[in-house]
Amino acid sequence: MLAKFTVKNFRGFTDKIELDLTRHSNYNFNLYAIKDDIVKNGIIYGPNGSGKSNFSLAIFDIVNHLSQKWKKADYYANFTYAGDPNLKVEFEYTFKFDGQTVEYSYAKDYHGIMTAEAMAVGGKPVFKRADGRFSIDTEAFPIDKSIQHNLADNANNIPIVNFLLMSIPLAKDHYLIRLQQFVNGMLWFRNLDVREFIGLETGVYAIEEYIIRNKLIDDFRRFLLNVSGQEFEFAQPRAGEKVLFCQIDKKRIPFMAIISTGTKALELLYFWMQRMGQATFVFIDEFDAFYHFKLAFEVCKILFNKDCQVFTSSHNTYLMTNDLLRPDCNFILNENKIKPLVDCTEKELRFGHNIEKMFRGNAFKV
């Protein structure tokens, strides 16, 4: 699981900003939101322009160089703070795999080229590359001097992690294998003006074709009914059809021609929920931009019962309730800081508190 993430000089974040998912309270409600002593589910709130989308993208930077999964084409546009070509963007990740702590950090330049990289496991250094120098634990990874020299220069910009994964035989439970599996299972997506995603898949799918091909039409119909109360009668697909049709008064009408923007967003969510069995960490940016506030609540209940870590960003304070999460799982991002509600007030927050009302009353200070 992802336990901690820190970034500096990324887009609008000139100062170091840290999300620490190991800091949680001992609440005895909504226990599903904490797993292995780490925050498993959370919602990030913040004013427009506070950096919620950029922060979520920063978390997924690791996918861009450790994974072959799908990447956002324009990700490196405006990569450094204020577009400064002299700045290095610094990333720090802490993962926990069955109690083993893996710390992975690196820096990238204006073009997204890695300039430094380091790893420690359980506090013990594994390798470090920076300023033309390279060191590695040769007991764990017996690499000859000539290769170490080349890795110090690393002219072809190969991540040390990927080099070790490709060149050293490792046990299936080795921390590098676990890290690779986690990163390959990371998924970021949103549905605003354009549908975009990062990770988990290697290509682009036609969603309705996927539903038809995998015989999920009835399941999709039940999903829409259970979550949103909408009932559709889907026509039986004809040979070769790749889009869904609804049966209305004996007429076949394309599904996309009659549904709302919110239902289109639900279709995208349904597709990704089919894939979340393989996911490790999911972030849905502005997930409820087109949802009714009660629909957003129902969607969250489904998402937060998944086994993987699931986080979203939102402006919908109806979700800021102890009936869904806890004060240590609702985060505020503002002014280059991100904190859970429990750390934004001196007041002891309990289950009976109306934290949405408190938020609207400006009771929380980041």
Give me some keywords for this one:
seven-stranded antiparallel β-sheet; seven-stranded mixed β-sheet; 366 residues; globular; alpha+beta; Rossmann fold; 26% helix
What does this structure look like?
The protein is α+β, with helices and mostly antiparallel strands and 366 residues long. The protein folds into two domains: 2-200 and 279-360, Rossmann fold; 210-261, no CATH class. Helices cover 26% and strands 26% of the residues. It has helices at 52-59, 61-66, 145-153, 160-167, 175-184, 207-213, 217-228, 255-258, 261-275, 293-303, 355-360; strands spanning 2-8, 17-20, 34-35, 38-39, 41-45, 89-97, 100-108, 114-121, 124-130, 133-136, 186-191, 195-198, 245-248, 251-254, 281-285, 309-313, 330-334, 337-340. A seven-stranded antiparallel sheet has the order 2-1-6-7-8-9-10. A seven-stranded mixed sheet has the order 12-11-15-16-5-17-18. Helix 7 (217-228) crosses helix 9 (261-275). The two termini are 26 Å apart. The mean pLDDT is 90.
